[in-house]
Write a structure and sequence with these properties.
mainly alpha; Cl-channel_core; ClC; ClC-type_chloride_channel; single chain; transmembrane helix; transmembrane; Clc chloride channel
Length: 428
Amino acid sequence: MATESSALAGPAPEPTPVRRLLPVIVPALAIGVLCALVLLGISLLAERLQDVLWRTLPDALSIGRYSSLWMIVMLTASGLAVGLLIRAVPGHAGPDPATTGLVDPPLPPGVVPGLLLVTVLTLAGGISLGPENPITAVNIALAFWLGRRLAPGTPAELWLSLAAAGTVGALFGTPVAAALILSEALASRAGRGALWDRLFGPLAAGTAGALTMTLLAHPSFDLSLPPYTHPHWGDLFSSVVIALAGAVLGLLAVYAFPYAHRLFRGLKHPVPALTAGGLLLGLLGALGGHLTLFKGLDEVKELAADPSGWSAGRFAVMAAVKTAALVIAASCGFRGGRIFPAVFVGVALGLCAHALVPSVPVALAVTCGVLGILLAITRQGWLSLFTAAVLVGDAAVLPLLCVASLPAWLLVTGRPQMQLREDGTPLR
């Protein structure tokens, strides 16, 4: 009789959007805080080690901190050390970084300690890579491992999106970046419900990650450039040209990437590959100067603090050297992200344009340079627009950035990406 009554009653009504979203808040906030703490802890540890390697040690040896000799020695030694670690740690610190993106499937938990150790040494050693890719991979692995144990019935996609959003929110100090990046990922997948329903959890995680990082570390991307207050018709042409120049430079890196990866893979072992990569990075550092080392976030602020402190030729050299360093570091096996080094390239390119044509406002030149290079390197439009705009904190540049993004996107879309398949061929 009960069975007959159930059949007559029909299927149970689907839960309302509010009832589906409320249970996501607590795990989203918790994961966002966890992601920020992991990023903050690794960043602080890398900074302490960087001080030892680049200040305490050369001072004790009476060697110039950023002398050509010390840069070559340190980067070569960093490559050797990272290669030995990757060879020794469980899981070899994850898959070949040339084959991974910013958001990938969860890694086994046993890979996490080795990946964190390698990331700290990469960041401290002066390698031209950022923390975003390995830290996102670590946070996804931790969130997935914890989530499946605390709530076994939840889909894996939930934990992946929360961890990715929390990490991106912490990296940029705002949940808006997480929402924009995840919107692109979610929009490309079939799913049920409104887009903001699917963004609700990631936005909460991004908010928690951003607030945690802001309250504990007070990060800022504002380069304190002169404000862009008086748009002119000529700025429209300048913005398009500079963004296209950045996209072309980025595409040169993208097209060189598989060839560089093939050369390093030919060494058949991570130790010689990373040692050779470190040596090349040291030589590039000696050519471009110490500002072309490391992930580039602090160094780009030093560049922007004195836009007239270098010649156009010097800015061009730094942009070219950093681009080459990014290709080598990303292809020889170092674990790290490409966003922050690409931002340095874009800022140097924009400052070069301003030095060549002083009538081009420096804020516009810098943001358009960053926009073009990021469109080519990341192939994410929202991320590129957001990052470029946040560097100056001036809404007046947004219309010109949107215009400049259109021809730059037409140039990069459909072309190979800076990510390879397992067989070494680039994704499109």
